[in-house]
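Example S7 (structure tokens).
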């Protein structure tokens, strides 16, 4: 026999209470004086022995009553020595979905806490020698080795919400690794959001046994912060800026909400009260001004009523860097009709200094010092100019090649490790659908079906020999705008140019937003915002080396997280690796010798906010359609049928009822003893 809660045995010490009663209560006596007690001697001896026996029996019965009740509360049970089915059940896999959607409430308890209770109930009915593989959405905390029952329960109790989730495919892949490619015997406890349910892609065999425990709640109303962006491309000091916040209502009801803006812990405080209709996306506008340059950390807070059942997605973190005047230098050879367009564009942008440099008139070192250096159809790139450009302190280089003499750029392309194959003179258009939507985020709200796209009569065809980011392509699949990093510079390379004989790009409506986004990102005015599932590395705004003086903390005042990241130098570029280091949302500050050099703003994944869950009938139908009936089994949590999972696979006998019956029997015996000996 085993006890489910052996720690409760301490209550057996309460048996000292009836012992004290026995020792002290029955010692009380009163002396009565008689002239002759000869006649009472026999009576006294008989009564004393009878009374002592009665008191002893009452004491024993009371101790047995108390002990029986205590053992009943310890939940005694007997486990079979042999598991009933033919699976390898000496090891059990447990996956607990600790994503934000599991914070929904049912019966005054979160789904996560309910799942924790069920795990403890399940594993306590398993043999003591059973080993467990415990998995959550936090990959860093998952172990590849097995743990025992007490270790599992301890890990389950400590499990907190995590801002990312795993798909069914990822869960089964992890468990297969844990089971060393052997048959899986596991339990998956989840609310089964639709984004994780991808049975088409899972790899299970007929020997695998995966039990799905699906949790549900009547709370399916939620609103969330979808995205944040500035309407202007450059940041300003002491002037109003417009910040847009997109809110999404995932429920079937109209919701009242309050939204708050906080920048740099009180430098900017703003709030707005709004309503949002069912299943609507709404943009909220904030107007504000900051009075100093430097790194700015922002926090958007969403406050709503009980209709908002997931609170974890009501915070949104972002940051940006507000610099001083931004310098753009346009370098060209002689007259170029595109200079007028570049001049008009950048001189109209606030906080921007534009300089036009004609190489025919010579140049100096100051001319090459720019935040954005534009090489505009240079007919010749001599080695001295090229060497000066690559050694200059500018961080961003934008190149429009001269297509009439593109062979003069071959040395430059070679340095960039890209191979120019040929000059393509076919007439093609810009492919709007190919534009990198992450890079050009919030610039284009929708595409007009009849949009007139810019054309290009000639462009350079490349074979790429290094990593690059293709920001825009042409309709024939060739890249139009490439971005890559080398020589500690961000290189923006157009495969065509702005010459009116070749392209109408400079006269097209797309020209201004594309150029301003290049300027915006190269000036670091763009908002920095990451998701916790996409944090492999970040590029630093300054060049640093890890010598023990660069660390990342989650607070500048009282950090609860601090670590020294791995930093790599790739052609003078600093890259900070963060994989599995940051596990929660918030601002993370990069310090060098305790001086702030950059900020990483981390948010949760967006799909956790969507109130779309797979129904039980749909799961059973899908399992049947894919022929997975022997491998996957769905259990109803609503009817508390999880106990049947254990009773099918393991034989257990519970004895707590017998101890309650035993306590009742001793209580009756005590009453009989007292009554018969009265």
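Recovered sequence:
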């Amino acid at each position: 026999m085993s006890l489910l809660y052996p720690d409760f045995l301490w209550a057996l010490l309460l048996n000292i209470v009836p012992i004290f009663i026995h020792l002290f209560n029955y010692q009380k006596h009163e002396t009565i004086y008689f002239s002759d007690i000869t006649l009472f001697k026999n009576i006294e001896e008989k009564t004393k022995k009878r009374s002592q026996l009665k008191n002893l029996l009452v004491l024993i019965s009371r101790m047995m009553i108390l002990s029986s009740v205590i053992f009943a509360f310890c939940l005694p049970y007997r486990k079979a020595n042999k598991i009933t089915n033919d699976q390898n059940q000496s090891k059990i896999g447990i996956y607990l979905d600790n994503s934000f959607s599991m914070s929904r409430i049912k019966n005054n308890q979160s789904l996560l806490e309910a799942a924790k209770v069920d795990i403890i109930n399940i594993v306590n009915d398993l043999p003591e020698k059973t080993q467990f593989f415990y998995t959550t959405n936090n990959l860093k905390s998952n172990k590849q080795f097995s743990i025992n029952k007490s270790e599992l329960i301890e890990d389950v109790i400590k499990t907190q919400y995590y801002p990312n989730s795993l798909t069914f495919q990822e869960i089964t892949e992890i468990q297969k690794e844990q089971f060393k490619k052997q048959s899986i015997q596991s339990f998956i406890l989840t609310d089964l959001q639709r984004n994780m349910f991808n049975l088409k892609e899972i790899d299970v065999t007929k020997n695998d046994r995966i039990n799905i425990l699906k949790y549900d709640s009547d709370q399916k109303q939620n609103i969330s912060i979808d995205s944040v962006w500035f309407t202007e491309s450059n940041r300003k000091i002491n002037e109003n800026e417009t910040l847009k916040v997109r809110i999404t209502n995932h429920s079937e009801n109209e919701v009242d909400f309050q939204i708050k803006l906080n920048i740099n812990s009180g430098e900017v405080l703003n709030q707005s009260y709004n309503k949002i209709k069912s299943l609507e996306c709404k943009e909220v506008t904030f107007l504000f001004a900051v009075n100093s340059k430097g790194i700015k950390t922002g926090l958007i807070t969403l406050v709503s009523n009980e209709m908002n059942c997931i609170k974890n997605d009501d915070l949104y973190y972002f940051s940006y860097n507000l610099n001083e005047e931004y310098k753009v230098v346009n370098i060209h050879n002689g007259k170029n009709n595109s200079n007028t367009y570049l001049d008009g564009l950048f001189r109209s942008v606030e906080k921007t200094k534009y300089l036009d440099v004609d190489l025919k008139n010579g140049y100096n070192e100051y001319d090459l010092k720019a935040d954005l250096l534009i090489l505009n159809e240079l007919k010749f790139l001599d080695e001295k100019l090229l060497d000066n450009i690559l050694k200059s302190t500018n961080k961003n280089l934008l190149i429009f090649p001269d297509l009439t003499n593109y062979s003069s750029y071959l040395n430059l392309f070679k340095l960039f490790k890209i191979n120019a194959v040929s000059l393509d003179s076919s007439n093609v258009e810009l492919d709007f659908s190919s534009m990198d939507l992450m890079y050009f985020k919030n610039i284009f709200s929708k595409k007009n079906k009849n949009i007139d796209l810019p054309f290009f009569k000639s462009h350079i065809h490349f074979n790429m020999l290094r990593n690059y980011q293709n920001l825009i392509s042409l309709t024939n699949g060739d890249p139009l705008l490439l971005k890559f990093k080398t020589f500690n510079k961000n290189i923006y390379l157009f495969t065509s140019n702005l010459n009116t004989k070749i392209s109408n790009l400079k006269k097209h409506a797309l020209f201004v937003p594309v150029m301003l986004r290049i300027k915006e990102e190269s000036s670091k005015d763009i908002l920095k915002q990451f998701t916790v599932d996409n944090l492999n590395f970040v590029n630093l705004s300054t060049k640093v080396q890890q010598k023990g003086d660069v660390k990342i903390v989650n607070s500048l005042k009282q950090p609860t997280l601090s670590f020294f990241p791995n930093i790599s130098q790739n052609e003078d570029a600093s890259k900070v690796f963060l994989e599995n280091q940051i596990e929660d949302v918030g601002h993370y500050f990069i310090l060098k010798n305790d001086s702030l050099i950059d900020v990483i703003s981390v948010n949760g994944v967006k799909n956790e906010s969507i109130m779309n869950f797979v129904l039980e009938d749909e799961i059973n139908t899908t399992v049947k359609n894919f022929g997975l009936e022997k491998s996957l089994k769905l259990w109803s949590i609503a009817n508390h049928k999880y106990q049947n999972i254990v009773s099918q696979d393991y034989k257990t006998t519970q004895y707590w009822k017998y101890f309650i019956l035993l306590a009742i029997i001793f209580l009756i015996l005590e009453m009989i003893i007292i009554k018969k000996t009265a």
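Notes on this example. DSSP finds twelve helices and 36 strands in the chain.
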